[in-house]
Predict the 3D structure of the following.
Amino acid sequence: MLKGKRIVVGVTGGIAAYKSAELLREFIRREADVRVIMTKNAAEFITPLTLQTLSGNPVFCDMFSLIKESEIAHIALAEYGDMMLIAPATANVIGKIASGIADDLLTTTIMATKAPVLLCPAMNTNMYTNVIVRENIEKLTARGYLFVEPAHGELACKSEGMGRLAEVSEIVEEVESILTVKDLKGERILVTAGPTREPFDPVRYITNYSSGKMGYALARIAERRGAEVTLISGPSSLPVPRGVKFIPISSAVEMRDAVMENLEASTVIIKAAAVADYRPVVCSNAKIKKQDGPLAISLTRNPDIISEIGKKKGERILVGFAMESENLIENAKAKMLEKNMDLIIANDLTEEGAGFQTDTNIVKILSRNEEIEELPLMNKAEVANRILDRVKEIITRKGFKGSRG
Ligand code: PMT
């Protein structure tokens, strides 16, 4: 998602400057094009050579350096970036920007840029909570500068509190969000994810191997693309994507109820959850004791949630998944037509790198106009983007705007 994006990273003089190296690695891993500006004080904490080696580009420290003979560094850098980021951002640099001071390469570049600017403060708690710093942050926020709040924890000065640089993953997530076009703004997308658990006594249940990764990726990317997202999830150890309304459930019946409660308000429904088709007829109140011979547990059908949505969906867009181990295309197509879906995402469980638990998936996207889009092995975030591209196409083709019943 950051491939080819141009990011100017400013590093200022705080102990967290060493974390900028990790941040650069994450950007480079995502194939972003990164230029680094360091303040004089930052160079006391980490060498320009380290950041130059990691970014693969010269690091700029000097106000009077020329990028090419005819280019003035701060103007060229200000115009170069799709966005600018300062991590760590000290109280000093925040104060300077808030006061319009431009006395070094970083602050002059910030002053000259029209690109979004993200600041990631890191400092001692007393400094961070100081009313002057708070006022500066408020002032900059009101002017459209963006911030990633520091984390709470042990600080370099041995005290405990708010002020640690936010996690690198959180900063990367924010950068990806800033650089993503909000083409799903106005959509309200309901995503289901994960497995369901169907208990037959207080300590045992029937479930499946779904980790939630596919559904959580869809929720995260849809939010990033500007949609309002509700995620209804069976048990999963994954963190809830930020900005997403989260409804945890356990059984298929609970999932059905949660989906139906939220159906009316949704414009798009994506059912990535692996829902158990059956549940035990009886759930014993007491733990079932071992006994001689086999134990039989009678099962009854669970509600077919997607069929119910298909009957009530109106103009809403319904996307289902098909998890098959044979006749993938035929079975997926039959499910799509029978259950009134607009798209079905077929994943073949027998393929290496596809389906349950992996970070990747291999899917075929089937639509009602007989088209089959075959995607190669991709990580689940990329798959999510491709699915949402297809949803966006339907919205555009049908000329949908806002709510639809
Ligand atoms: O969570 P991960 O580890 O990342 O794995 C991802 C995944 C393999 C679970 C996901 O990619 C996937 O394929 N999800 C759908 C799994 C499934 O239940 O497929 P199905 O062919 O049994 O069901 C077809 C569709 O009906 C699905 O959209 C399902 O959510 C829905 N369904 C199924 C049964 C039921 N009672 N109600 C339903 O709504």
In short: Residues 380-398 form the longest helix (19 residues). The chain has two domains: 6-178, 188-398.
